[in-house]
Amino acid sequence: MTDKVFFMPFDPRHPGFVFAQFEYGSTKGGMDKNQVQIDHELAKGHRAITVWWRPGKKNPFIAGMSDGQIYIRGHGMPGYKSIEGGRGGERVDYDVVVDRLLESGLRKTFAGKIKCYNCHSAEFGDTLGSADPELVGTPFAQLVADELYARGVRNCTVFGYWGAIDSFVKDGSEGRHKYVRVKQLVDGKVQQVERGRASEARYQFFGRPRPKKPGFFKRLFA
Is this model's pTM higher than 0.85 or not? Predict the structure, then answer.
């Protein structure tokens, strides 16, 4: 069993796939964010691996997991139904993320943790006056939890995060960890300032059954 999987739910056929590869992998001298975190996990004695979604193919690591942790990677914003695969990359809706997890082999009996490790994934968004179809108001992690519940994946726990979170471990006030960052005016300049560890900004979400549409006769005699 793999302890931690960093799941990349982005389509290799999409023209923006290169942005995800550059940011989370090593393509063309990329930032390799996932590998930085994997090295940190290995140093602590944890097993970790990156899994990139491949159309129509199961991944043996995900398919073999009965528990453990799956981190959904990608950029997020408050109340958005999608995450972004690298800046300028593919935007993937919550239901497609779940589609791709299941296609990768996620068991319906999976009893581990699924972490929407995306900035603002635990936050509601203000839809007032917005014409952006991606902004639905509901936290991304809640949408994922509801979709998993609807697909019969009901034994796992789902988490989202408040604020802008580090993509990988960095040195900070409490040592080498992932931190939450907020924008603050410092010496006349707007900077990202540390506001505690990412684990302290993690919230659990519970899947809810979708309301059933009324049947034909109920609508007829309503």
Answer: yes
